[in-house]
């Protein structure tokens, strides 16, 4: 089939990258079920030649009868600079939308095409070149080329097809990254495509139709014969047959051939133009995954019986149970609708488990780390999939790690954390394919990735998950803590920015791609080396690139812009050695001469040698500025800070005494005797600027002043406002999600309607969501009845107590004297005033079971108020980069006849006038 009259749908490719700026849209078209990958789709239309200009008026006739609409698209979507497809409704399962365009090459050239995942199919000049198979390259002659995109669905905005040829690039770093990208992702690469929809977890019955696609159409000759070897899970060769590129082929088997194997593995062997040999492995389940998991469980039982129980260390035991649990989870449709079936994960987990059951000892791994006590099972190359039980919600969480090949237990290694773009972005197969840093000449690093529980932007639950997993890695592996690096794309970049801004003295450098920081807290990063890569057409360009570039002007900030790239194009640059290797040159500066630190949250309080211990409770932020000279003179400015600490010692400054100027006063610090110098603001109505007094401390238990202004430690803690936890300032009710958490329901209910409403609220709070492209957060905190949890358990956990009638909630009833607000069935009492009527309120306070834990009380006298309250029927987690949330970052949220209001506790007064709308 040939389309004509495409002049109005022409995009010119000359000396810079382009994306299609116009196209004829045909459809939606309902294609038959047998129109699979590689099969000719054009025979579903009646004519061989179609004048698309004319078709815009008359439509196109279908072979099955009827007509389909055609229209010319020229409007671009500002979010991605692609053609705007928002005029079309969502596509049904068998529907497709065809985009037909003319690409005019001004010269014969090699063209690299980077489609973002999930685009569908791309045909160029009648040849299939892409079917959700990743980036590719081909040679295009000078002149016009017909490009047809067959879209299986219309994403809201995550779309991109970038064409680049003999481009002119202003930034040499971009050229270097692009060359490495082609080398790692396209050159000599191929894809195995299943022609018809895969059976996935159910297992293929007796045959498959497949299509071998060259991603590299330059260095892989089209006319060669390729060979496919078939093996089972044990590695036994079952068959060998020949195949050809870009043709539909079919392979059949029977039960005699497969036996008890769970998967068949097809290893494709092919050659490049210079007769270099390459291999690709594709695997197919031939039994239902549930049956495979059952068989593995039986092997595990036998394994446990064959070896003494104490021979299996704790790390190895949870590794096996974690792998088995992941496979079992994959037997059903995932809870996260965006999770994609990956046959590679199934293959590698089965392989890894069988290796562990067969070996039965660490020595068989042959990697030096496997000999360490309580180590996980690693491949000889140092790759492993580890698991740990999360303290946050008792779930089993995984991490993927790559250790140096020349690992030595006597050394400490740099750590590069690959921040995920979603719940889990990378796994064991990705690490096997990438071999991170293996070609580096000077030194190797430890690479790791783990879950931040979803697209959480490194905020709240995302931060708690990150800090927990990072601590697991630091405890398990020999890490040089002066060389911890973060890198990530999109959500991963947001998380890297957020953690670096919150804890600037924790990391040595970050590399971020297509993510944005908190604009008001860029000053926190003035001492941190940063590689910031953003596409020129990224909708985040102002926040992600322009703002950091303007604020962070220094020799260790490096900004890189890729031309004609939108947010989704730069996804392909995130794992390149050019990015990861840049990090390795940096080491953490433990005591920089200048510090600037701004925080909105009490738990984000430390920048190198300055620590904020208490903010002014009436303010939304605090700032600390410090400057240190080589002669021992310090100048410190504090904004909205009631108390802060200078951490300095003789080892850091190599001096015995130092002078610090704070406002108009000068203090002398004895660095030989003390290492912590606490400054507490003194109340004064006479002076316009705050004054501080000094308490020098040898350690956490000391409270001795070097200026004779002594005060016991309890006086300092007594200065804190009643009802306030300094670390929870700015976190509000969301602070309850920063640690282990239980949700406690009443032990009995007044009515079935009350029970239903309270359990619905409990489920919403146990499984919060985000307002991102993937709202799913991979947590579900335990929900228990008040009589099913002990007070000892509650002392080690944050708590959410949901109550309607205090007498029916045994735990709260026993501790009603510790509750900050009095809530009854008639109304609530605040500051001595009783407010009658229906209400639903939530407030956070220190837990009555442990002063260092938090309790969120959700109280109502009418269950229907829980369903009407926006923050109780569905909890949407915000992100740090947006600043403080007007409701969720407050300590009290009230919903009653006056509407929704939120505020903080202040001193011993609870702001009850605000509750009454004054």
Q: Care to describe what's here?
A:
Helices cover 19% and strands 32% of the residues. It has 918 residues and is of the alpha+beta class. The longest helix is centred in the first third of the chain and has 18 residues, at 289-306. The protein is globular, with a radius of gyration of 31 Å. The chain has 19 helices and 51 strands. The strands form 12 sheets. It has an 8-stranded mixed β-sheet, with helices on both faces. Strands 2, 3, 7, 8, 10, 11 and 13 form a 7-stranded mixed β-sheet that branches. The protein has a 7-stranded mixed β-sheet with strand order 42-40-43-48-47-50-51. α4 packs antiparallel against α5 (314-330), α4 packs parallel to α6 (343-359) and α5 (314-330) runs antiparallel to α6 (343-359).
Provide the fold topology.
Elements: E1 2-4, E2 10-13, E3 23-30, E4 49-51, H1 52-58, E5 60-61, E6 67-68, E7 70-73, E8 95-105, E9 109-115, E10 121-124, E11 127-131, E12 136-140, E13 143-151, E14 161-164, H2 172-185, E15 190-194, E16 207-214, E17 226-231, E18 237-243, E19 248-252, H3 255-258, E20 263-271, E21 277-285, H4 289-306, H5 314-330, H6 343-359, E22 383-389, E23 396-402, E24 413-419, H7 428-434, E25 446-450, H8 461-476, E26 479-489, H9 491-502, E27 509-513, E28 530-535, H10 541-551, E29 557-562, H11 577-583, E30 594-599, E31 606-607, E32 610-615, E33 622-628, E34 633-639, E35 641-647, H12 650-653, E36 657-662, E37 665-670, E38 676-682, E39 691-697, H13 713-718, E40 741-745, H14 752-766, E41 769-770, E42 783-785, H15 791-794, E43 798-803, H16 810-814, E44 822-823, E45 827-830, E46 833-836, E47 839-847, E48 850-860, H17 863-868, H18 870-873, E49 876-877, E50 892-896, E51 899-903, H19 912-915
Parallel strand pairs: 1-4, 2-8, 24-25, 24-26, 26-27, 27-28, 28-29, 34-36, 40-42, 40-43, 41-49, 43-48
Antiparallel strand pairs: 3-7, 3-8, 5-6, 8-13, 9-12, 9-14, 10-11, 10-13, 15-16, 16-19, 17-18, 17-20, 20-21, 22-23, 23-25, 30-33, 31-32, 32-35, 33-34, 35-38, 36-37, 38-39, 44-45, 45-46, 47-48, 47-50, 50-51
Helix pairs in contact: 4-5, 4-6, 5-6
């Amino acid at each position: 089939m040939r389309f004509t009259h495409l002049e109005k749908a022409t995009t010119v490719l000359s000396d810079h990258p382009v994306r299609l700026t116009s196209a004829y849209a045909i459809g939606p078209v309902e294609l038959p079920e047998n129109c699979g990958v590689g099969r000719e789709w054009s025979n579903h239309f009646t004519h061989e030649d179609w004048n698309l200009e004319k078709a815009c008026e008359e439509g196109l006739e279908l072979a099955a009868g009827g007509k389909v609409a055609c229209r010319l698209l020229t409007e671009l979507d500002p979010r991605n600079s692609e053609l705007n497809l928002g005029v079309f409704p969502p596509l049904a399962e068998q529907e497709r939308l065809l985009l037909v365009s003319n690409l005019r090459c001004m010269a014969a050239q090699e063209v690299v095409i980077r489609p973002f995942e999930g685009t569908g199919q791309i045909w160029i000049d009648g040849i299939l070149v892409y079917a959700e198979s990743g980036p590719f390259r081909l040679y295009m002659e000078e002149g016009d080329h017909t490009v047809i995109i067959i879209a299986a669905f219309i994403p809201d905005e995550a779309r991109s097809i970038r064409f680049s040829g003999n481009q002119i690039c202003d930034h040499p770093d971009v050229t270097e990254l692009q060359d490495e990208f082609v080398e790692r992702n396209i050159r000599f690469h191929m894809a195995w495509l299943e022609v018809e929809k895969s059976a996935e977890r159910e297992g293929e019955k007796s045959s498959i139709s497949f299509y071998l696609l060259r991603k590299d159409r330059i260095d892989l000759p089209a006319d060669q014969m390729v060979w496919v070897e078939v093996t089972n899970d044990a590695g036994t060769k079952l068959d060998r047959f020949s195949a050809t590129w870009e043709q539909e082929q079919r392979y059949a088997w029977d039960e005699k051939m497969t036996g008890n194997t769970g998967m068949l593995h097809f290893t494709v062997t092919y050659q490049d133009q210079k007769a270099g040999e390459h291999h690709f492995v594709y695997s197919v389940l031939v039994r239902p995954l549930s049956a495979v998991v059952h068989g593995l469980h039986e092997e595990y039982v036998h394994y446990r019986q064959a070896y003494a129980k104490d021979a299996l260390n704790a790390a190895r035991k949870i590794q096996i149970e974690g792998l088995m649990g992941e496979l079992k989870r994959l037997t059903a449709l995932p809870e996260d609708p965006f999770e994609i079936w990956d046959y590679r994960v199934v293959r590698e987990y089965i392989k890894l488990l069988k290796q562990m059951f067969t070996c039965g000892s660490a020595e068989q791994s042959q990697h030096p780390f496997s000999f360490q006590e309580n180590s996980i099972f690693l491949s000889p190359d140092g790759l492993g999939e580890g698991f740990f039980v999360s303290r946050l919600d008792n779930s089993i969480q995984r991490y993927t790690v790559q250790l140096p090949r020349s690992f030595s237990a006597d050394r400490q290694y740099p750590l590069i954390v690959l921040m995920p773009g979603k719940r889990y972005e990378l796994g064991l197969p990705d690490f096997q394919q990438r071999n991170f840093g293996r070609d580096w000449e000077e030194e190797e690093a430890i690479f790791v990735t783990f879950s931040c529980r979803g697209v959480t932007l490194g905020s709240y639950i995302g931060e708690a998950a990150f800090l927990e997993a990072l601590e697991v890695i630091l405890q398990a592996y020999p890490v040089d803590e002066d060389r911890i690096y973060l890198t990530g794309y999109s959500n991963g970049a947001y998380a890297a920015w957020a953690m670096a801004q919150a804890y600037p003295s924790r990391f040595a450098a970050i590399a971020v791609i297509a993510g944005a920081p908190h604009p008001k807290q860029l000053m926190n990063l003035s001492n941190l080396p940063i590689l910031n890569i953003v596409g020129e057409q990224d909708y985040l360009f102002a926040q992600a690139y322009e703002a950091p570039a303007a604020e962070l002007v220094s020799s260790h900030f490096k900004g890189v812009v890729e031309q004609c790239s939108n947010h989704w194009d730069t996804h392909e640059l995130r794992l390149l050695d050019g990015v990861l290797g840049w990090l390795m040159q940096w080491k953490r500066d433990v005591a920089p001469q200048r510090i600037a630190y701004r925080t909105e949250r009490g738990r984000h309080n430390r920048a190198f040698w300055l620590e904020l211990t208490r903010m002014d409770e009436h303010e939304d932020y605090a700032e600390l500025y410090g400057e240190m000279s080589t002669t021992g003179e310090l100048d410190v400015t504090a904004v909205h800070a009631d108390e802060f600490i200078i951490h300095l010692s003789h080892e850091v400054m190599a001096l015995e005494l130092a002078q610090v100027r704070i406002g108009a006063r000068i203090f002398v610090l004895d660095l030989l005797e003390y290492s912590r110098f606490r400054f507490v603001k003194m109340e004064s109505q006479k002076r316009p600027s705050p004054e501080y007094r000094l308490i020098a401390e040898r350690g956490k238990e000391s409270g001795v002043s070097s200026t004779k202004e002594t005060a016991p430690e309890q006086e300092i803690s007594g200065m804190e406002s009643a009802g306030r936890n300094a670390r929870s300032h700015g976190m509000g009710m969301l602070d309850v999600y920063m640690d282990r958490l239980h949700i406690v329901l009443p032990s009995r209910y007044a009515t079935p309607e009350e029970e239903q409403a309270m359990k619905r609220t409990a489920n919403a709070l146990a499984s919060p969501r985000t307002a991102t492209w993937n709202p799913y957060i991979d947590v579900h905190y335990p929900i228990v009845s008040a009589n099913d949890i002990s007070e000892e358990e509650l002392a080690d956990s944050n708590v959410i107590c949901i109550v309607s009638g205090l007498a029916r909630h045994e735990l709260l009833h026993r501790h009603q004297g510790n509750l900050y607000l009095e809530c009854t069935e008639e109304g609530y009492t605040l500051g001595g005033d009783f407010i009658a009527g229906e209400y639903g309120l939530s407030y956070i306070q220190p837990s009555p079971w442990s002063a260092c834990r938090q309790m969120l009380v959700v109280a109502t006298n009418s269950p229907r108020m829980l369903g009407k309250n926006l923050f109780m029927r569905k909890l949407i987690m915000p992100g740090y980069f947006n600043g403080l949330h007007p409701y969720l970052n407050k300590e009290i949220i009230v919903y009653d006849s006056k509407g929704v209001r939120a505020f903080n506790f202040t001193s011993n007064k609870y702001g009850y006038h605000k509750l009454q709308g004054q």
